[in-house]
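Field: COMPLEX_INPUT
Field: COMPONENT_COUNT = two
Field: RESIDUE_TOTAL = 224
Field: MODE = joint
Values follow.
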Amino acid sequence: EVQLVESGGGLVQPGGSLRLSCAVSGFTVSSYYMSWVRQAPGKGLEWVSVFYSDGRTYYADSVKGRFTISRDNSKNTLDLQMNSLRAEDTAVYYCAREGRTYGNGMDVWGQGTTVTVS
Amino acid sequence: IVLTQSPGTLSLSPGERATLSCRASQSVGSSYLVWYQQKSGQAPRLLIYAASSRATAIPDRFSGSGSGTDFTLTISRLEPEDFAVYYCQQYESSPSFGQGTKLEIK
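Field: COMPLEX_OUTPUT
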């Protein structure tokens, strides 16, 4: 079964750090583009970062320089290291599979993990 | 690219037709416009990719159309399970989402 399970969320003080992890099952993470998307309480979706299958990474301007996306092929996981956290980073963070062709939408999503910066 | 969805809220009854709009601040290639459905407390679900192609297992009452800066999601006959929030997203440049349209039962 294709599945994404996020973990690592929690309560952190402003300026602190947190590392999110997305455990992938049912497919090989290195064969797909993978993204992180977040949703602040009561708000819409915001794209955060993408890890291309060829290893390139990109970030939203709002997190550039503070967040780092990484992939562990041996563990089949996708991680998001979040540093210098701000109150506005408070959100549910979703891991999502972009597919083999980038731009065709995110077809598999995790259940999300909640990050609260306060 | 800023995506503006309208209306913010759409109140309709089951069986009616829903038309949701997504307008882009710059031209978006049709290959790079997608639609999602999100129900309360759930992760989004991919409905439409490449502006008009239905994702796997999406009923044919959902259809997408448009090009350039104007895109539309149409639900031909609303079922009770279709009442949710809908988002468009573009991949023409750094990915971005519209603010969403809430489809509520009238």
